[in-house]
Amino acid sequence: MLLTAKILVFALNGFLRVTTGLDIGLSTKCVVIPKEMGMCHQIGYSEMRLPNLMGHTSMAEVIQKSTTWQHLVNTDCHPHVRTFLCSLFAPICLDTFIHPCRSMCVAVRDSCAPVLLCHGHPWPASLDCDRFPGDEDMCLAPLTKEYKYLHKVLPKPTCQTCPAVEEFFTHKRVLEVFCDTVKVKLSKKRTAFEDQEYNIECQVEFITQGSLLPYETQSMIQQWLLINEKCIERMTPTHRPTVYLLVGNIEEGIILVKQVYRWQRKDSQLTLATQKWRYHKCL
């Protein structure tokens, strides 16, 4: 997203305000962004400065610290979250450091801090927005208002109390909520850092799309699951894949999950409900 020259262009996602450069006064070197930093790949450049703007002096430290933010990036809590974090962990290799603007930090913080809090973590002091320059300096600025209007506004997932998982239900109850249901398969694996990583598969054939396209529904459900990580932990007690029916609706542009039913293939009531699905009509 960044192109190097005498003038920098923050392509597609924003623009660069230029007056004077900021430099943290460290002796730095250019290094290739390592493959372990997946969130900072395909961002328009392949080399970063080390030490970085977070004060990390070794690549091992950069990888370890940045990896903990990958989950937040996956939630897509703000359009700039990846650009903001990569500008700090993997700053572009130029003659001077280019900080994110304070306004970008504030925008990302306001959208993503609630997600961090949902995971049990406050917005860190190391990302205090007051440490970043104002928009009148050389820095990465947020999207223009005109650019925002070019994109479709979709309902947003939110942090919420995890609904209780229902194991026993009647086929009539399943049919009652069928039109607001999506079938989700969850599994998890261990990462190289011994953290939990979840593989989320969403099958949207059992949901009423309305004005949304199938891939939009899948993306929003994936975001809901990533934001509500504690809910996933409850729903995936083992490493064996588990299938659920999630029932929810959209209230004031917010996606809310109301009920969670565990999909058990041998359940007679669920089998009966699936036989009737093809004839069921939504209002």
UniProtKB/TrEMBL annotation:
Gene3D superfamilies: Frizzled cysteine-rich domain. Residues 1-21 form the signal peptide. Residues 25-142 form the FZ domain. One of its GO terms (molecular function) is Wnt-protein binding. It is found in: Secreted. Its main location: secreted. InterPro entries: Frizzled/SFRP, Frizzled_dom, Frizzled_dom_sf, Sizzled_CRD. SMART domains: FRI (SM00063). The keyword Secreted applies. Keywords: Developmental protein, Differentiation, Disulfide bond, Secreted, Signal, Wnt signaling pathway. Belongs to the secreted frizzled-related protein (sFRP) family. This is FZ domain-containing protein. It comes from Catharus ustulatus (Russet-backed thrush). The gene is LOC116995702.
